[in-house]
Design a protein that fits this description.
single chain; alpha/beta; Rossmann fold; 25 helices; 50% helix; globular
Amino acid sequence: MTTFLQIVADDLYSRIGSDLSRILIVFPNKRASLFFNEYLANNSDKPVWAPVYASIGELFQQLTTLKLGDPIRLTCELYKIFCEETQSKESLDEFYFWGELLIGDFDDADKNLVDTDKLFANLQDFKDIGNDFSFLSKEQEEALRLFFKNFSIERHTELTERFTSFWNRLRTIYHRYHERLTALGIGYEGMLWRNALEQLNVTTLKYDTYVFVGFNRLDKAENTLFSLLRDAQKAMFYWDYDLYYTQMQDRKHEAATFINQNLTLFPSPLPSELFDTYKKPKQIRFISSSSESAQAHYLPEWLQSTTAGQEKDNAIVLCNGALLPSILYSIPSTIQNVNITMGFPLVQTPVYGFIKALTELQTEGYQPQTERYLYSFVQPVLKHPYTLALSAQAQSVNRTLTAHNRFYPTPAELQQDEFLSRIFTPCNDPYALCLYITDILKEVTVLYRQKEKSDDAFNQLYREALFKSYTTINRLLGLIESGDLEIQTDMFKSLLNRILFTSNIPFHGEPAVGLQIMGVLETRNLDFKNLIILSLNEGQL
């Protein structure tokens, strides 16, 4: 089987040779680069100067002087401006979730180079906006219509008045937010993209040629960058498609809408005959399942039936990401290497429960007036697997407290070894809590320091979860130290829980080795000999 990346690697090598050091290859995501490197190396029995690889986001970051801001700090900066403009009494914790949504909206507007002054125009002028959508794409126009379909200016309810008041200030909030982030030298991704295009000078670019591989639907910012590089003769484009969709005689196939546009605007050097694979025979089976979770039970049988020792040729594609835990439990122990790129919910790992138990122990479980802990908050910590693994006295302490009905133990009663002394040292302000939790997490790393041969996918993920949690809390600590995050203890506890609860673990495996597990979008540019797609149902795909 000749894969798309192999075709591109062969073509680039034949055109440029073994010195590709002045070439930057851009993929929609990072996953494809390691596979591509293997194919490139196979073209020569001599050393090859490899090209530089980047995702599209990384390329835009290279083209601007701004740095991608920490997501927590970006939301905190927006919160400050929001409060200044609206005089709102809303807490940071209450604001945080929809603050992220608002940054997401700003991000979409900037990536599509929208005229934001018109986009955020006063609601009273909405009728005029509705009659002039010339500055919006069809997708943006539809999004606006859907947004306003249940909103009536004639309804003078408190909710609509509050919303109208906020909307009237949204343009000012957007511009002030841009100004503040620019002064700080940071920005969210869409802001970086817009800024990069405003600063771009194609005559001073670092690389001779920019090769774009496997893109499909382009944001307006991407389209603009592609056009500028094409016109400067500094770009090459490779598209992954099939003639079945692009050359239908009787009608246009909707699956080829964007590819046809791309092939017209940014032609590929490859002959179209290479992409006539749809009609070639394939072995396809449809398997019915009584439930979502029952699909996971079929996996061991499927994995056993595929080629032994060729795990990297197999891929599991999840249309429903909620199936991931069941899938991991179903993978046979004989499969040592698993690569996951769709993210694993941090809330489903032991470290989340441990951090939550520690935080509640210090913020609710300790009574400063009596200098005692509440047993109801002590027990979850003592019984947690991490505590039991690192403290020789945890079980003994718990049994003693239970036997003697010690509902309000003192710290001295609990500090029976070094690890328990760390845990049951009172602290109650956000700065001290950050130091307290990160200090304990450092101790937990001992459990994962030595990578055992028996490591299964869960142990690998738990190691990543620990690292993710540590870095998240360390970022909060940095923001508190710098004065960018000024909050009380209760708000800190709630904010920390919200951030961790919504976090996914970016699993750092070896993309070119082992069984591949991914979502539908992660399959872009990749080809596998054996593929199983779970939850291939209407409403999931």
